[in-house]
Design goal:
There is one protein chain. The protein is an alpha/beta fold. Helix content is 39%, strand content 15%. It has a five-stranded parallel sheet, with helices on both faces. 41% of the residues are buried.
Length: 365
């Protein structure tokens, strides 16, 4: 009767030894990027950052701290709903690039944009509503359900080459008979599972510290996204997939659909109807340290030719050097502090040129 018990104990010991060996091997010889994201269910049917979350992101190149305020925004403090007198509010809606993954707060795009505008004596607050993994559909719902309550004067939507697939997968909106329609659906992939796991201290510790877990998670994400779905149609029940897997050696993405164009158009209408200027910001695709391509290539040329579409790709190419990193290369390929500063300056210049009324900068008086 004891033999099965002894075999079970032996199996547990062997598995434990294998896990410890694999973890030690990775830590010493192949360090992984540990980039946890803490999201939860928002009351308006999509994901949001966990209010009050405080966690580290560690890669072979950098170690940063991510802090989320009680409103689910990446910020040190919370913001009153009522806008301070004389202040211009710039609201950002995007994914982990706008949120500033792999960057400390002071190196993030949002912070750098605020500093660039304040350097021109513009009294501004930049509110960062970005959430890792968001597509345009989730940005739009966040704008309508949460962002407008803060009375933004300028609204910035990020555009990334993963957005067409994300918008289709989310199922929040449909384009039918030439019109954008809300489907009434919610999109919170794997949130219940995530919430259950994160109640367990052991899981949270493993997810934030284990190189083996990080490697396994990224392999699983890549498999689900590229093998099972071809990068587009994912069963939302199994989609706990980060969109920030890698930007290297990506095949060209499918062109944006009428749905994507309609989402951007509707977002502009929502912003302008609420007296806010609207802009779309390109996150270029990274190929090498000196080679980038605009994600606007997926959108109709006549659309992105409009002045409220902002691309930093020319500035990136001018600044590119073999010894300069604009994107981190051993993590999830987010922008470095240098890349964030370049992007922020390009956006600030465009806002100063086209939104003088909203910004009310002293230098322009």
């Amino acid at each position: 009767m004891q033999k099965p018990f002894h075999i079970s104990i032996l199996c547990i010991l062997v598995i434990g030894y294998a896990l410890i060996f694999a973890e030690t091997f990775l830590r010493l010889l192949a360090p992984q990027a540990i980039i946890p994201r803490h999201v939860t269910a928002a009351p308006y049917g999509i994901r949001m950052n966990v209010p009050g979350a405080d966690y580290a992101q560690v890669t072979p190149e950098t170690r940063v701290s991510i802090r989320i305020n009680e409103q689910g925004l990446r910020a040190e403090l919370s913001y009153p709903l009522e806008k301070p007198h004389g202040v211009t509010r710039v609201a950002l809606f995007g994914d982990s690039y706008f949120m500033g993954y792999e960057s400390d707060l002071q190196d993030s795009f949002a912070w750098q944009l605020e500093q660039a505008l304040r350097a021109e004596r513009c009294p501004v607050e930049v509110l960062n509503f970005a959430v890792s993994g968001f597509g345009t559909a989730e940005m739009l719902r966040t704008l309508e359900s949460k962002g407008l309550s803060f009375t933004p004067d300028i609204v910035l939507f990020q555009w990334h080459h993963t957005d067409p697939a994300d918008n289709l997968r989310a199922g929040l909106y449909a384009y039918q008979a030439g019109q954008l329609q809300e489907t009434g659906a919610a999109y919170m992939p794997a949130i219940r599972t995530r919430q259950l796991l994160e109640r367990m201290p052991l899981y949270k510790s493993v997810s934030e510290n284990s190189h083996l877990y990080a490697a396994t998670r990224e392999k699983a994400a890549t498999f689900i996204k590229h093998t099972l779905t071809g990068g587009a149609l994912v069963n939302t029940a199994v989609t706990a997939v980060s969109k920030e897997v890698t930007m290297l050696d990506q095949p060209d993405r499918p062109d944006a659909s009428p749905l994507d164009v309609a989402l951007l158009t509707h977002a502009e209408q929502v912003a302008t109807q609420n007296d806010a200027a609207f802009f779309v910001v390109d996150i270029p695709s990274f190929h090498t340290r000196t080679s980038f391509s605009s994600a606007f290539r997926l959108l109709p040329a006549q659309l992105v030719a409009q002045p409220h579409f902002i691309s930093p790709v020319d500035s990136f190419r001018q600044a590119a050097r073999p010894d300069t990193k604009l994107y981190w290369e051993q993590g999830h390929y987010h922008l470095t502090p240098t890349g964030n500063r370049l992007l922020a300056q390009v956006v600030a210049d465009r806002l100063l040129a086209r939104s003088a009324r909203q910004l009310a900068c002293a230098n322009s008086q």
